[in-house]
Amino acid sequence: MSSDRLMRIHSAEFQAMAERVLRVTELTSRLNVLPFEDEAGKAELFERILGKPLPPRVTIYPPFYTDHGLNLDLAERVFINQNCTFLDYAGIRLGERVMVGPKVTFVTSGHPVDPGERRLYLTGAPIDVAENVWIGAGATILPGVSIGRDAVVAAGAVVAEDVPPASLVTGGKATVHRRW
What we know:
Blueprint: E1 5-8, H1 12-31, H2 39-50, E2 59-60, E3 64-66, E4 72-74, E5 79-80, E6 84-87, E7 92-94, E8 99-100, E9 105-107, E10 109-110, H3 115-118, E11 121-124, E12 127-129, E13 134-135, E14 140-141, E15 146-147, E16 152-153, E17 158-159, E18 168-169
Parallel strand pairs: 2-5, 3-6, 4-7, 5-8, 6-9, 7-12, 8-13, 9-14, 12-15, 13-16, 14-17, 16-18
Antiparallel strand pairs: 1-11, 10-11
């Protein structure tokens, strides 16, 4: 996992982030129970979650989950299907015309692998999704990944490495890389 950011747990920075997570959890809980046709209510809550209005022609079907919100950058004409999760501590950018299938998870944070550091630090790296990408249902996009323009991520794929433009990636292979 790429770790562009390293935050000490129990620091003032971590406490501020934890408080933001609680506020956003309350806002997304309210968002996810609004009547579907309440466009004004959804727009107001999204603006509070993201810290800015949604760009033109962005479609997001609830339920929608994010832990921070302020680090989620959506371009015009993005489509996000139901039950997607955006853990955006280190930043997530979705380019124009990106389509996100149901139950997709974007994760920008984690912990060090070393057992002694695991409970002491939060790591993070941004996710960047270029224009016209399609991410299939149930895919998981991990920290530090960039997905190139016109790429397709198949349903259920676990993406831990960069995806070249105009390519198809599939699978969720987990392999032992080291032992301790």
